[in-house]
Amino acid sequence: MNEDYLVPYWQLETAKKVQSRFLPQSISPWNGLQFAYEYHSLDPIGGDYLDFFDIVGNKKGLLIADVSGHGIPAAIITAMAKMSFSNHAGISDSPREILQRVNEDIFKLLGDSGLYLTAVFLVIDQDLKIHYASAGHPPLIYYHNETNSFENLKTQGLFIGAFEDAWETFQEKEIILKPGDKLILYTDGIVEARNPNGEQYGTKRLEETVAFSSCLSSDKMAKMIINDVHTFRNQHPLNDDMSLLVIETRLDYTKFQEHYQKGLEMIQRKKPEWVQEFKEAFEYNQDNYSVNFYLGRFYFKKKQFDKAKNCFEHLIKNKLADTNVLFYMARILMEEKKYLKSIGLFKEILKENENFKEALSNLGYCYYAIGKIDKAKECYQSLLRKYPKNSYYKGVSHFFEPEKKQNPPD
């Protein structure tokens, strides 16, 4: 190889490796949803970008974006966009607000360079309500399983990074997915692919392929659409990257909803039958926060700690845990006399919510159990300062008086 090309080639390969890490290897099923995506780059370093986020409130975020251009500039913009989306998706559950903040970040960095990106951002909650917003991106295709029909979901919004005041144009809408429904997100490289005659694949042909493949699973639908594009273009060179994401609601999600809603009704009416309804719901969807939390708390109160632990560990593993989940997990570890691990969790809880008095009280107990009396004393004195009229905290504090016998607080 000519030495003049060694450095550019090395830079290209490095950028390619870095950008490849921006794409998830796969997207795990979540809350009755299946995900499938296809990515085909025109150049070694493409301009399309897809990401998956944990959103506040036990929600999930999905992004598909298309950066203008290719090569090193596209890789740089993709890196900047990834950082910006990750930062703002961590503090907001509004797609419109996230696009606004990302546009502000990107415009500050790009200015009037002429570079920009299109994007569509979704936020999905536990009840499969989807809020979505678009920044100059092609419309989503929503396939309705019940009526065997589809519609294009459009929202207003200018490109990200092109205009400082683009934030004013972003619009947010919502839909609720039903069992068997599918949502298709794609970049314009698919509809703009051409055959040797110069004809574009087009939106209409894409919709026809979606309708034809509607009975297939999400991964098979995604593959069929991409294969149909390749067949259509008949080896004619691509003009752009092609990315496709298919979201599908499992057909048996109906059964989950039936048991879940009955369970919630039983809880409101304080009927014990909720337990069986939630157990049935769990069989169809193991990712629902409420089902796991209520069952975990039920098992904990019944002292079935192994079952309780399974519920809470599942939420932690799937990044759905809040301070309440962590509290019960720490209490289980206390029952197992794993006090150091409990202390770590209680500290994490109090860092998130310093007024979680039960966490502070149990933290004091754990310190006492491992012989750190001074730290235990600090915990209970802090509680007594905050809640001076609480008879329990007054009683516990007496254990730390010099003339009192040092027995662990109950």
- Strand order, main sheet: write it out: 1-10-9-6-7
Overall CATH class of the largest domain: Alpha Beta
Radius of gyration: 27 Å
Largest sheet: 5 strands, antiparallel
Low-confidence stretches: 1-7
Task: List the domain count as a whole number.
Answer: 2
Query: Treating each run of at least 4 consecutive H or I residues as one helix, how many helices?
Result: 15
Please describe what this structure looks like.
With 410 residues, the protein is α+β, with helices and mostly antiparallel strands. It folds into two domains: 3-249, Phosphatase 2c, domain 1 (4-Layer Sandwich), CATH 3.60.40; 261-400, Tetratricopeptide repeat domain (Serine Threonine Protein Phosphatase 5, Tetratricopeptide repeat). It is 48% helix and 17% strand. It is built from 15 helices and ten strands. The strands form two sheets. A five-stranded antiparallel β-sheet has the order 1-10-9-6-7. Helix 9 (289-301) runs antiparallel to helix 10, helix 10 runs antiparallel to helix 11 and helix 11 runs antiparallel to helix 12 (339-352). The longest helix is centred in the first third of the chain and has 19 residues, at 71-89. The radius of gyration is 27 Å and the shape is globular. Residues 1-7 have low confidence and may be disordered.
What are the salient characteristics of this protein?
disordered N terminus; about 400 residues; alpha+beta; 5-stranded antiparallel beta sheet; single chain; 15 helices; Phosphatase 2c, domain 1; Serine Threonine Protein Phosphatase 5, Tetratricopeptide repeat
